[in-house]
Amino acid sequence: MRTMTATDIVRNFRHVLDGIEHSTEEITIIRNNRPVARILPGAPHMTALEALSDLYHTIETDEGEHWLKDSARINRCISGKVRNPWR
Q: Is 7 exposed, middle or buried (0-12, 13-18, 19+ CB in 10 A)?
């Protein structure tokens, strides 16, 4: 973890953000010789397929088949129209 003064952050903000974007480095911001904040990298971007890819290994085959049947039944019940639930 790197530390930087608030002044250095302001003067080099674009470079600081570039560094955080391309690495997993945290930066602690120091003001008046005290830590006041941390800058952390954002969460990595994942597609739905990537996020659910491990699900295949955690569900038993028969449970997966039940889930597919339930999903198909629910899809038949849902109308194609989107409604406002707060009306």
A: exposed
CATH 3.40.1620 is right for the domain spanning 2-39: yes
Structure tokens at 37: 């904040």
pTM of full prediction above 0.70? no
List, in sequence order, every residue forming a beta bridge with 77; answer none if it has no partner.
none
| pLDDT tens-digit map of 12-45 | 999 998 888 888 788 999 999 999 999 988 877 7
Sheet with 27-31, side-by-side order of all strands:
2-5, 27-31, 34-39
Place of tokens 């129209």: 81
Chain-centroid distance of CA 4 in Å reads 26
What DSSP state is assigned to residue 31? E
